[in-house]
């Protein structure tokens, strides 16, 4: 997909949600809500403590974690990804309780998957509940912009009833809790994490392309960190106070992200139609029986193979479209097709 097409689609998506309320939360300084997690020498904070750079080099990756755990909330940040050759590099922005519940952990992920030089970053969303990694709910997408050129906001909204992933103000995925999901719906308190690490064994073309440290350090940047949620006691795993949760729920309602309006739903469908390249909901090889929370959209389903992957890649479809256009105006090209 060429640059002009991406710009047009980005404008279209922005227009569809122009009437939506902007994200309305207080951003937090790093020392107010976060702690370095690993690779401390590769966690670089700005002087005002509101901008964090995470580096991956030959010595290690790096990451940070929220100081508190939360029972539901909104987890959001402006993020810019490394540029140039980034094969094997993964930047993750996610919630998890794997350190507390080793075999029954919950997790909600944005995973940004690097690529060889000249190829696009991809983003994957994951949902795991109660240790259900074998029943993961992955979806993968291209992006309508270059995520290495400027900051874009990525948000995870998690309530007792719904999970919504946002890029900027466009919802790209919604999972509504169903009785049939049972423990597969994330329900235990989680911390927020941000990391950059070497995933050479799987991240790019199934591990075909590895991290090339000639291009290091790989730098991901996080800004305007926003965290609204019901804080819990890390030992007792219960809310620290009723007042805290009541205030957090009220703050969540003011963000404009808890409800998908008709305009937002239209924007979500447009994004998924243009950019989704894999969905577990359409992966009938892995899941012969439909996952209980999946809402099958026939217009989406027709574009995917039984493996859950697109029948034709975006790049192939675009090249084919250009080829058809050129043959219509240049008959000499028919013989080569």
TrEMBL record:
Pfam families: Glyco_hydro_16 (PF00722), XET_C (PF06955)
Enzyme class: transferase
UniProt PTM comment: Contains at least one intrachain disulfide bond essential for its enzymatic activity.
EC numbers for this chain: 2.4.1.207
Domain of life: Eukaryota
Recorded GO CC terms: apoplast
Gene Ontology terms, MF aspect: hydrolase activity, hydrolyzing O-glycosyl compounds; xyloglucan:xyloglucosyl transferase activity
Gene3D superfamilies linked to this entry: 2.60.120.200
Biased composition (Basic residues): 311-322
InterPro entries: Beta-glucanase-like (IPR000757), Beta-glucanase/XTH (IPR044791), ConA-like_dom_sf (IPR013320), XET_C (IPR010713), XTH (IPR016455)
Active site: 107, 111
Subcellular location: Secreted, Cell wall; Secreted, Extracellular space, Apoplast
Disordered, as annotated region: 307-337
Function in brief: Catalyzes xyloglucan endohydrolysis (XEH) and/or endotransglycosylation (XET). Cleaves and religates xyloglucan polymers, an essential constituent of the primary cell wall, and thereby participates in cell wall construction of growing tissues.
Protein name: Xyloglucan endotransglucosylase/hydrolase
């Amino acid at each position: 997909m060429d640059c002009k097409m991406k710009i047009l689609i980005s404008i279209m998506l922005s227009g569809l949600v122009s009437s939506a309320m902007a994200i309305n939360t207080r951003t937090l300084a790093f020392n107010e809500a976060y702690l370095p997690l690993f690779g401390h020498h590769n966690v670089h904070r700005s002087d005002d403590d509101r901008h964090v750079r995470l580096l991956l080099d030959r010595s290690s990756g790096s990451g940070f974690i929220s100081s508190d755990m939360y029972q539901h909330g909104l987890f959001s940040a402006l993020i810019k990804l490394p540029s140039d050759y980034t094969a094997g590099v993964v930047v993750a922005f996610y919630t998890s309780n794997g350190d507390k519940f080793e075999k029954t952990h919950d997790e909600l992920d944005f995973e940004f998957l690097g690529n060889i030089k000249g190829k696009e970053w991809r983003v994957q969303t994951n949902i795991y509940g109660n240790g259900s990694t074998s029943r993961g709910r992955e979806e993968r997408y291209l992006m309508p912009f270059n995520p290495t050129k400027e900051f874009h906001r990525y948000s995870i909204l998690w309530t007792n009833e719904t999970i919504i992933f946002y890029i900027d103000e466009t919802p790209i995925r919604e999972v509504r809790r169903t009785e049939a999901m049972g423990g597969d719906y994330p329900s235990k308190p989680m911390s927020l994490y941000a990391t950059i690490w070497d995933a050479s064994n799987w991240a790019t073309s199934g591990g075909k392309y590895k991290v090339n440290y000639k291009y290091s350090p790989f730098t991901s940047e996080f800004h305007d960190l926003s965290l609204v949620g019901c804080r819990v006691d890390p030992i007792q795993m219960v809310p620290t106070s009723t007042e805290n949760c009541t205030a957090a729920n009220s703050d969540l309602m003011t963000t404009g992200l808890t409800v998908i309006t008709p305009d937002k739903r239209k924007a979500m469908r447009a994004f998924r139609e243009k950019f989704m390249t894999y969905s577990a909901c359409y992966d009938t090889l892995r899941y012969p029986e439909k996952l209980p929370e999946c809402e099958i959209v026939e217009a989406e389903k027709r574009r995917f193979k039984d493996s859950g992957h697109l029948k034709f890649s975006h790049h192939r479809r675009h090249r084919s479209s250009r080829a058809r256009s050129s043959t219509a105006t240049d008959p000499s090209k028919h013989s080569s097709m």
